[in-house]
Write a structure and sequence with these properties.
The protein is α/β, with parallel strands linked by helices and 428 residues long. It is 29% helix and 25% strand. The protein has ten helices and 25 strands. The protein has a five-stranded parallel sheet with strand order 5-2-1-9-20, covered by helices on one side. A hairpin with a 4-residue loop joins strand 7 and strand 8. Helix 2 packs parallel to helix 9 and helix 2 packs across helix 10. It is globular. Bound molecules: flavin-adenine dinucleotide. The site of flavin-adenine dinucleotide has 36 residues, from helix 2, helix 3, helix 9 and strand 22.
Amino acid sequence: MPSPSGSPPGAPRHFTGRRTLLLAAGAAGLGAPALLAQTPPRVVVVGGGFAGATCARDLAAAGLAVTLVEPRAEYVACPFSNAVIAGLRQMEQQRFSYAALEANGLRRIAQPATGLEDGRVLLADGTTLPYDRLVLAPGIELRFDAITGYDAAAAGRMPHAWQAGPQTLLLRQQLEAMPDGGVVAIAAPANPFRCPPGPYERASLIAHYLKTHKPRSKLLILDAKDSFSKQRLFEAAWQALYPGLIEWVSLSFGGNVTEVDAAEGVLVTEFGRHRADVANVIPPQRAGAIARVAGVTDASGWCPVDPVTFESRLRPGVHVVGDAAIGGAMPKSAFTANAQARACAAAVVALLAGETPRPPKLINTCYSLLAPDYGISIAGVYSPRNGLLAEVEGAGGISPADAPPEIRAAEAAHAEGWFRVITQAVFG
Ligand SMILES: Cc1cc2nc3c(=O)[nH]c(=O)nc-3n(C[C@H](O)[C@H](O)[C@H](O)COP(=O)(O)OP(=O)(O)OC[C@H]3O[C@@H](n4cnc5c(N)ncnc54)[C@H](O)[C@@H]3O)c2cc1C
């Protein structure tokens, strides 16, 4: 595979950014010693999820001085967390430590970044980190101002479970406690949001749990959209696997949840009120808060970026990757986050070496599990066009509508294999 920058893969790089600066200081009689002139440029990466951890890893492997800023002691992965909610998987299988990254020499600072000032990242304890280039990968922030009555406290009764961890377990516990014959409601947001097929995978796996443990129960999806990812495949599977169990209410038929009463378990839409025994409210989202503080979000709440370098359109020297970024057709997924992070790392390495980054070709595949042995997928290829990441026509694909059970089972196994490989590559 060609190197994304001008140099052949594996060729030693000569970084110019910081060295030039120091040599210039020396030339001006400021006394920069020759030894200092060898110091590699400093890159700070904020956020140690699929995007940030991948990027930090690649940048460190290229010989840069990388600091990863991530406050949490462990990463809890969202992919496959729907299987935890359905009782098909243990939460422990979602947890990943930063120990391997640190053992490989990556410096991690266990604090949140709180701001940005004159080429320095501000940390919660008041200290600062200087950088030559900064990569922000903070994921999402849930918009607790979007649905009346749905704030952080309400999420304690109506879990979103859209950031894996205690919320995932809360939703699981609520399903277990619900009597047979109960109603589960999922409120799904409008686009764009993290993991477009995620609410429908969740609906499928919860339906699997209900069918096998509480067969008189019902599942209602209240949707702020009129269509969703892999819709035909999902709906065909729901008919085949869970007939009569799942009802999907689209935007046009009154699916948009505008208000909740968490104490009463009520979801209010433009067309009426729904009472649920278990309510999973997935609110609209925006880029993680630090992106807004850093001045790299636009009016949409997301971060516009250059599709070649992932450099912010709003703040030079700052790159944004993963869920926080927007810049075209790529859906927000862990697969995307990993692909963007690798391309961004290659571009940062090239820029710091004084080279021109090459336009990337990025792949995304979103697998969804509809039952333990029933998987489907959608794949796309993306490349820069007119300043955005555009889908390459004819290069992607979706699982066939009429596939036999062996194919669905094989896709379920592929999904597990993908998760094993990507988590090993990023955190192993
Ligand atoms: C239910 C569900 C199922 C999913 N299934 C799939 C799937 O099957 N396949 C798939 O590809 N994707 C899936 N996804 C989507 C995937 O989880 C996200 O797209 C992915 O996690 C995005 O990675 P990220 O690194 O951008 O953000 P995150 O994974 O959210 O990582 C962001 C990190 O930044 C840190 N951070 C935030 N703010 C700061 C700060 N101020 N300072 C320092 N650190 C900070 C956070 O602690 C966090 O560790 C799913 C999502 C959900 C909710």
